[in-house]
Amino acid sequence: QVQLVESGGGWVQAGGSLRLSCAASGSIFSINTMGWYRQAPGKQRELVAAIASGGGTDYANSVKGRFTISRDDAENAVYLQMNSLKPEDTGVYYCNNILRGWPWGQGTQVTVSS
């Protein structure tokens, strides 16, 4: 049974940076397309970044140029480097297998103040 654990969230002022981490037990990231999602208060969860097993990446338009997704298959981990943060980036961030949809973890809260 796969368990996802997100960490690294916190509070920052606009323009600041955070680095989120995601790790899983019970599976291997190296053969899975992984993504970072966020859910703002009162809004649907949305995919903001994705990384394929071969390393290719894609981003939502709202975060292009500011966020970078990466993976370390040896550590079975995926990361999200978030720079130039804006208040609208505030929300709970989750990782998941984009294609298979594992059970959601608890997420990690990101709060960006103006």
Which term fits the overall shape?
A: globular
Instruction: Give unreliable regions as ranges.
Output: none
* Fraction of residues in β-strands: over 45%
Q: Which structural class best describes the helix and strand composition?
A: mainly beta
In angstroms, what separates the terminal alpha carbons?
40 Å
Describe the largest sheet.
6 strands, mixed
> Count the strands?
10
- Treating each run of at least 4 consecutive H or I residues as one helix, how many helices? 0
Overall pLDDT:
95
Reading the helices and strands in chain order gives: EEEEEEEEEE
Tell me the helix content: under 10%
Radius of gyration, in Å, reads 13 Å
Q: Provide the spatial order of strands within the biggest beta sheet.
A: 2-10-9-4-5-6
Would you give an account of this structure?
With 114 residues, the protein is an all-beta fold. 0% of the residues lie in helices and 50% in strands. A hairpin with a 6-residue loop joins strand 4 (34-39) and strand 5. The model has no long low-confidence stretch (mean pLDDT 95).
Summarize the structure.
The protein contains no helices and 10 strands. The chain is mainly beta.
Topology:
Elements (H helix, E strand, L loop, with lengths): L2 E5 L2 E4 L4 E8 L8 E6 L6 E6 L5 E3 L7 E6 L4 E6 L8 E7 L10 E6 L1
Parallel strand pairs: 2-10
Antiparallel strand pairs: 1-3, 3-8, 4-5, 4-9, 5-6, 7-8, 9-10
